[in-house]
UniProtKB/TrEMBL annotation:
Its EC number is 3.1.1.-. It comes from the Eukaryota. One of its GO terms (biological process) is cell wall organization. GO terms for molecular function: hydrolase activity. It is found in: Secreted, Cell wall. Transmembrane segments: none annotated. Its main location: secreted. It holds the Pfam family PAE. Hydrolyzes acetyl esters in homogalacturonan regions of pectin. In type I primary cell wall, galacturonic acid residues of pectin can be acetylated at the O-2 and O-3 positions. Decreasing the degree of acetylation of pectin gels in vitro alters their physical properties. It comes from Populus euphratica. This is Pectin acetylesterase. Residues 1-20 form the signal peptide.
Length: 393
């Protein structure tokens, strides 16, 4: 091969490599040094961070804030371990984040929010951005300061344009979806009265459901989390003053009725996280009877399917309780075995992304946000479910 041809091939290769990397939007991390003034630290004491990609054109004054998710830590041991990972310290995080799905800047991939200011709030407190406590026994220190992290990031964003927002949407998935519910009211209060504020929770509707041995696995988990991280003070006051056990106000089904800001609930009726960790946690299936069913829904026996259908039924009862099912709310409850559907392109908006009545998730959320039509979509029970991207993790 002569040199010219070799160089030409090399250039062609580089060109295709560039096209490929161009279609990804990598956004750099911004640390928040001023967080230290109000004690807003990650579990390990590192500074919190976010990633901001500026809006443009008609979206230049609109803001989408997305809480990163990633489970919780609810005892000292698991929090100490988390503090040494990307879930508990900005030191170990990717400094570049790939913005796609609802964070994409491409109109054909994200038709309603592509030109907004889009912010990903990094999750490093292990308590859904809601704790306010500290553990220090002389040899080990842990910061449970999620609420301060939230406040510090907002303080940093306000002068960057958030204070002049016309429209705002608070979103997040999983533990971040719970954060979106938990902070919805105070987000609306921080912004000017004439800003249109709404909230979206993706896979954040964690249910106070007993596991298959009738143990309160999820309730115990949340109670320990609330106690350890000092979350109770920051829960919805109307809810905590109404319930005998105020810690239960960590569950959306108990506090959403007191939220007046419009919110959208995006969830699968067979949320895989809840299926695997709350309904059938390993502690409730020591003999492994559910192993095959967990990996492949087609392998579930009749009794197991009945249990999954009962779970869906309980979720619908909680969702449809009149005060949650408000006029200004929206929902998309599909019958897939998934968890988080707004953050990746293949579930948010693609030719084969999940649909209910031919609506994709991006279209349903956009219809609701912009009040184009009422957007309350609930699919029929499994085996219904169109274009599911099932996961088994
Ligand atoms: C936007 O996405 C479409 C569909 O994937 C793609 O064809 C187009 O090249 C993308 N535009 C940009 C600017 O990346
Ligand atoms: C502090 O807590 C850690 C984790 O529980 C433990 O390993 C350590 O021994 C404790 N230190 C003291 C002084 O109690
Ligand atoms: C941090 O706080 C100082 C003093 O309060 C202020 O002057 C500065 O602008 C703040 N920095 C950021 C990035 O907000
Ligand atoms: C809200 O009102 C203020 C003061 O009247 C005005 O400057 C601002 O542009 C308004 N914002 C929106 C989103 O209308
Ligand atoms: C919450 O409680 C306050 C004070 O008790 C009350 O004024 C308010 O109407 C309640 N909000 C809702 C949505 O129930
Ligand atoms: C129920 O949970 C408790 C505490 O989490 C545990 O000790 C017990 O073994 C569980 N019981 C069953 C039947 O799983």
């Amino acid at each position: 091969m002569d040199l010219a041809v070799a160089i030409l091939l090399l250039l062609l290769n580089l060109a295709s490599w560039c096209t490929c990397s161009d279609s990804r939007l990598l956004v750099k991390m911004t640390l928040v040094p001023n967080a230290s003034k109000i004690g807003g630290f990650c579990l390990d004491g590192s500074l919190p961070a976010y990633h901001l990609h500026r809006g443009f054109g008609a979206g230049a004054r609109n803001w989408l804030l997305q809480f990163e998710g990633g489970g919780w830590c609810n005892d000292i041991q698991s929090c100490l371990e988390r503090a040494q990972t990307r879930r508990g310290s900005t030191l170990y995080m990717n400094k570049l984040e790939d913005f796609n799905g609802i964070l994409s800047n491409n109109a054909s991939l994200n038709p309603d929010f592509y030109n907004w200011n889009r912010v990903k709030l990094r999750y490093c407190d292990g308590g859904s951005f809601s704790g306010d406590a500290k553990f220090d026994n002389g040899t080990s220190v842990l910061y449970f300061r999620g609420k301060k992290i939230w406040e510090a990031i907002i303080l940093d964003l306000l002068p960057k344009g958030l204070m002049h927002a016309r429209k705002a949407l608070l979103s997040g998935c999983s533990a971040g979806g719970l954060s979106s519910f938990l902070h919805c009211e105070n987000f609306a209060r921080i912004l000017p009265r004439n800003t249109s504020v709404k909230c979206l929770s993706d896979a954040g509707f964690f249910m106070d459901e007993r596991d298959v041995t009738l143990n309160h696995t999820m309730r115990n988990f949340f109670e320990n989390l609330v106690s350890l991280q000092g979350i109770e003070e920051n829960l919805n006051k109307n809810c905590t003053s109404f319930l005998n056990n105020p810690k239960l106000c960590m569950f959306p089904q108990y506090f959403l009725k007191y939220i007046t800001t419009p919110f959208f609930i995006l969830n699968t009726a067979y949320d895989v996280y809840q299926f695997h960790h709350a309904l059938v946690p390993p502690s409730a299936d020591t003999r492994g009877d559910w192993n095959r069913c967990k990996l492949n829904i087609a392998s579930c026996n009749t009794r197991q399917l009945d249990i999954l259908q009962d779970f869906r039924q309980d979720m619908l009862v909680a969702l449809l309780s009149s005060r949650i099912y408000s006029r200004r709310g929206g929902m998309f409850i599909n019958s897939c075995f998934a968890h988080c559907q707004s953050e990746s392109q293949d579930t948010w908006f693609a030719r084969d992304s999940p649909q209910i009545h031919s609506k994709t998730i991006a279209e349903a959320v956009g219809d609701w946000y912009f009040s184009r039509i009422t957007s309350k979509l609930i699919d029929c029970a499994y085996p219904c479910g169109t274009f599911c991207h099932n996961i088994v993790a």
